[in-house]
């Protein structure tokens, strides 16, 4: 007879709490339930194993007996023994010698209705079922409440919508849902709508709906977290002499003071002119403005002459400069 490692089956450690065992069982049972995996023989077998393991580990008496058996089995294996020589007789019987008894899961899964007498392994029937058919004492009422599947729905929004928040109206089956998208979302943000997914089965909870957000590229701004970056063309005269220029922000028009002698590519920071933070909407990122010189074109003859005079003055100025 093959020894069954029920802890491994439920993907928990041997010192797992009853709550951890229950949570792992629910997660695995939903994943491998036949209603969720129709015509999948591997999932069906996995589902049987999961329920068998839970029937043992959920019950303190059965778990205690199983742990004692496991300790002896491990010791026997470490001494070089194999399954054919192990003395199983001392472990025969249901529930640690208390005789056959009904053991129902809290999940209401009718595993015998699903699979008949093949629901439980020889190991289980021998150790916990006094050798009787599993249908005579185990799990007659095990109808699983299957939760509905979650649904993911991609949605595109503009940068302006990410700044002020927006909403989308979605048609999910026969349902029409209006979903609010909060301010500050980024590409990859998931907006959860509890109960907006597929309906559950046998009274199970509905799944959730997740909007997976993509923020579209913007013609003017590049995003870096909650900060925004932009480039601003500034005329040559303002760069040289200084002045105030208009600048576009995500919420409208603003102004930027350009100091005299500003060089090309110099970046200025406008605090609080970025996007709101998703978790703290009252906090905003900054706007970083990189200036680019706009050279004058279509110069008149007089303007060319003035530039030539300026160039000559600069050359003389440099030539008069004392050598170092």
Overview of this protein structure:
By secondary structure, the chain is of the alpha+beta class. It has 3 domains: 6-136, Helix Hairpins (Orthogonal Bundle); 151-215, Urease metallochaperone UreE, N-terminal domain (HSP40/DNAj peptide-binding domain), CATH 2.60.260; 222-310, HSP40/DNAj peptide-binding domain, CATH 2.60.260.20. The chain has helices spanning 6-9, 18-32, 41-57, 60-78, 111-115, 122-128, 159-164, 236-241, 301-320; strands at 151-157, 166-172, 175-181, 190-193, 209-215, 222-224, 227-235, 243-249, 252-258, 267-270, 287-294. A 4-stranded mixed sheet has the order 6-7-11-10. A 3-stranded mixed sheet has the order 1-5-4. β2 and β3 (175-181) form a beta hairpin. The protein is elongated.
Topology:
Layout: H1 6-9, H2 18-32, H3 41-57, H4 60-78, H5 111-115, H6 122-128, E1 151-157, H7 159-164, E2 166-172, E3 175-181, E4 190-193, E5 209-215, E6 222-224, E7 227-235, H8 236-241, E8 243-249, E9 252-258, E10 267-270, E11 287-294, H9 301-320
Parallel strand pairs: 1-5, 7-11
Antiparallel strand pairs: 2-3, 4-5, 6-7, 8-9, 10-11
Helix pairs in contact: 2-3
């Amino acid at each position: 007879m093959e020894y069954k490692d029920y802890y491994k089956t439920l993907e928990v450690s041997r010192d797992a709490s009853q709550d951890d065992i229950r949570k792992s069982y629910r997660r695995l049972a939903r994943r491998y339930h036949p209603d969720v995996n129709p015509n999948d023989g591997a999932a069906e077998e996995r589902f049987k194993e999961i329920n068998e393991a839970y029937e043992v580990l959920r019950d303190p008496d059965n778990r205690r007996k199983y742990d004692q058996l496991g300790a002896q089995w491990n010791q026997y294996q470490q001494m070089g023994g194999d399954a054919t020589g192990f003395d199983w007789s001392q472990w025969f019987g249901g529930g640690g010698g208390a005789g056959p008894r009904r053991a129902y899961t809290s999940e209401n899964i009718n595993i015998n209705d699903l699979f008949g007498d093949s629901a439980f392994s020889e190991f289980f029937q021998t150790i916990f079922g006094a050798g009787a058919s599993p249908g005579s004492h185990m799990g007659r009422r095990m109808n699983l409440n299957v939760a509905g599947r979650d649904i993911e729905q991609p949605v595109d929004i503009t940068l302006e919508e990410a700044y002020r928040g927006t909403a989308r109206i979605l048609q999910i089956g026969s349902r029409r849902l209006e979903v609010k998208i909060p301010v500050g979302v980024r590409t990859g943000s998931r907006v959860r709508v509890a109960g907006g997914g597929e309906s559950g089965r046998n009274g199970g909870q509905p799944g959730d709906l997740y909007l997976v957000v993509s923020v579209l590229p913007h013609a003017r701004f590049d995003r870096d977290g909650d900060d925004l970056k932009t480039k601003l063309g500034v005329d040559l005269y303002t760069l040289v002499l200084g002045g105030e220029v208009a600048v576009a922000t995500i919420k409208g028009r603003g102004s930027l003071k350009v100091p005299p002698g500003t060089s090309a590519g110099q970046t200025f920071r406008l605090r609080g002119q970025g996007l709101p933070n998703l978790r703290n909407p009252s906090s905003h990122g900054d706007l970083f403005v990189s200036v680019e010189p706009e050279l004058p074109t279509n110069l008149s003859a007089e303007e060319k002459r003035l530039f030539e005079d300026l160039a000559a003055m600069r050359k003389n100025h440099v030539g008069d400069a004392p050598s170092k």
